[in-house]
Amino acid sequence: MRLTSGEVELERHDLSLTLEQGALKIACGESDSAQLPIIDGVPPSVTSEAGAAGGLFLHVNAGSDQAEHSLSLGALRCERFLAAARVTRYWMGPAWGRAACDVPHDTQFLLLELAPDEHVLLLPLLDEQGLRTTLHGAGGPGTASRGTAASAGGRNELWLHAESGDERVGASSLRALYVAAGAEPFALLRRGFAEVAAATGSFAPRSSKVLLPNPNPNPNPNPNPNPNPNPNPKQGAAAERGGVRMVHVGRILLQGGA
Fold this sequence. Notes:
Blueprint: E1 2-4, E2 7-9, E3 17-20, E4 23-26, E5 39-40, E6 46-50, E7 56-66, E8 68-76, E9 80-86, E10 92-97, E11 107-115, E12 118-124, E13 132-136, H1 152-155, E14 157-163, E15 171-182, H2 185-200, E16 238-241, E17 244-249, E18 252-256
């Protein structure tokens, strides 16, 4: 990605996704596992919108304005995944697993590995109406009351949760999730974040930002010209005592083999 005349030029993903008949999968002809859905059983209330670089934006359509939405996206299939979930108000922590039930509550980033050369990125979005979406497995918000956590199917279900945090702020439809696929995970992340940035306009990826000049042009990171930072010649000196090497480091005496 690069900036040209104030506009972002996007790199297209090398694999494309389709959402058809309740199945999210890699387009036919682009993968050996194209017939196996990544998420199966996507409800009809979830629709897709193609992005400029080949990713998909998934929209959730509910019946009425609500400050909180929770729904199952369907059964997840992958070899393994890397997730980043919010562990405190301002920090995220990593998590790994192989099934949807391992996806932690408040997941804000999910990278799936389907095969060594097939990866899928899922990014929950902040909708312009003020609802923030996250992902989680069975046992998260909205699942316990439906009895899905203990069932075999529930262990494979990936859930989407959206909330505004204010009962007065609600929506009946929202742009909830971004998904994209690629062969190389690092390139997939670069292209995916750039496509989301261009579509939402709410942030800019690092590749499009201008780096500030180095305030310290001195290439030497050590401003002290003296190669010995310790002015006391006795400290840091080594001596042999009875076949044992004694090293003085400040006030600590370290003893090692000869």
